[in-house]
Design goal:
Elements lengths: L2 E5 L3 H13 L3 E5 L5 H8 L3 E5 L7 H11 L5 E5 L4 H9 L4 E4 L4 H19 L7 E3 L2 E4 L4 E4 L5 E2 L2 H10 L6 E3 H9 L4 H18 L8 E5 L3 E5 L1
Parallel strand pairs: 1-2, 1-3, 3-4, 4-5
Antiparallel strand pairs: 6-7, 7-8, 8-9, 10-12, 11-12
Helix pairs in contact: 6-8
């Protein structure tokens, strides 16, 4: 049962989210004061952290930064009511792997947590220099990197990493478009469908770094996609 450290100072929201996560087979430790988080972390040893940004005692960004320094592999998801791009970038610079804007749906939060845990579980069995072989590329999900020989790594966004990991688990298999939308975005709405198109194009650009890279991302009309290696 995955252990989640959930930091939220709004009692009503905290209770609802904690109970919802527990109903999905997560073990949850709820902390309401930022000043108590690090002690709770060391005692609880979570598999992932869900941190509100605005907290009494200490803000979520500084907590994320300290957690990342002491525990480099633990996934961190920020919850924030802030919508400015700079706030989001601050979250990623503070060690966050992903963020969810308030108000949010529980389904979205659960999907994002599951994806973070899946990536972390996959990379936990790999040595730092191993990665996943995709043609002549090596894909490092935890570092969100795509490498080709001695060339500088191509840094991927969190969503690009999630999508490539889904297509590569394993490669050379058909992945339904609806399955991708349901798993990564929570539903197959028109807006999310257009987002998927954008991320597929971004991955294709990344995989075209060299003509003989040995990997292609194919569109299967009416079905979905296939990563051919």
């Amino acid at each position: 049962m995955p252990k989640i450290l959930y930091v939220e100072d709004e009692p009503f929201l905290g209770k609802i989210v904690k109970e919802s996560l527990e109903s999905r087979q997560f073990e949850v430790r709820l902390v309401a004061d930022g000043g108590q988080v690090m002690a709770a972390f060391e005692q609880f040893r979570p598999d992932a952290c869900v941190l509100d940004v605005m907290l009494p005692g200490r803000d979520g960004f500084s907590l994320g930064e300290e957690i990342r320094q002491k525990h480099p592999t633990v996934p961190i998801l920020f919850l924030t009511a802030k919508v400015q791009t700079e706030d989001v970038l601050t979250g990623f610079r503070s060690g966050g792997n992903d963020y969810v804007r308030k108000p949010f749906s529980m389904e979205e939060l659960i999907v994002r947590l599951q994806n973070l845990l899946k990536i972390n579980q996959l990379t936990a069995t790999q040595s730092p220099n191993e990665g996943i072989a995709l043609g002549h590329f090596r894909f490092f999900p935890h570092r969100q990197e795509l490498r080709l020989g001695d060339a500088p790594p191509r840094l991927l966004s969190h969503r690009e990493t999630e999508l490539l990991l889904m297509l590569a688990s394993p490669p050379n298999t058909n992945v339904a478009r609806k399955d991708i939308l349901d798993k990564l975005w929570g539903n197959d709405s028109f807006f999310n469908s257009r987002n998927l198109d954008v991320y597929v194009s971004k991955l294709r650009d990344a995989l075209r770094l060299r003509e003989d890279s040995g990997v292609q991302l194919l569109t299967l009309k009416g079905v979905g996609y296939r990563l051919v290696c």
